[in-house]
Task: inverse folding
């Protein structure tokens, strides 16, 4: 992935996270998701030391970062050309496929982000805007939550399809009963 594609992915997430933070995101359950109280803007960090510190204290500092390790995980899944989630508990994945002659990965990353964000309007999270295990596990209407992301766009060789995989992680999900917005 190029830095431009990574930045587009971060920019799109910040755009949609901002809508949620301001209470402007449509929610299928309550009309609009309530304003977030502790949501932070995502940023790309170069220092691995800072990255490790952020990961260790993720559930406390509530920031989102671009993680090249997650990008590598997304790459491994995408190169299998299999439109399916991997069977791991280390991280989650958003998967999207587009059939197009388009080669502009920045635009593809933007379209994938728009599609994933539209799940809020389609499925909703409700008035509390709190990710809980109950919300996480509801069948066929899951909305992923993440504080670290990595994205990979892989052109399938046999046709015009591009498989887009975004690996995401939220260490807090495994340690907290309720996950903050």
Result:
């Amino acid at each position: 992935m190029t830095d431009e594609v990574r930045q587009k992915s971060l920019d799109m997430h910040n755009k949609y996270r901002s809508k949620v933070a301001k209470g402007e995101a449509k929610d299928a359950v309550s009309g609009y998701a309530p304003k977030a109280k502790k949501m932070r803007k995502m940023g790309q960090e170069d220092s691995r030391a800072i990255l490790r510190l952020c990961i260790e204290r993720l559930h406390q500092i509530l920031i989102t970062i671009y993680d090249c390790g997650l990008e590598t995980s997304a790459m491994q899944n995408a190169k299998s050309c299999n439109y399916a989630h991997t069977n791991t508990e280390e991280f989650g994945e958003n998967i999207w496929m587009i059939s197009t002659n388009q080669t502009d990965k920045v635009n593809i990353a933007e379209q994938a982000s728009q599609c994933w964000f539209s799940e809020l309007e389609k499925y909703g999270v409700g008035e509390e805007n709190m990710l809980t295990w109950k919300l996480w596990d509801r069948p066929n209407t899951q909305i992923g939550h993440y504080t670290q992301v990595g994205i990979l766009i892989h052109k399938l060789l046999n046709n015009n399809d591009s498989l887009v995989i975004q690996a995401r992680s939220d260490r807090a999900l495994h340690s907290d009963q309720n996950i903050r917005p």
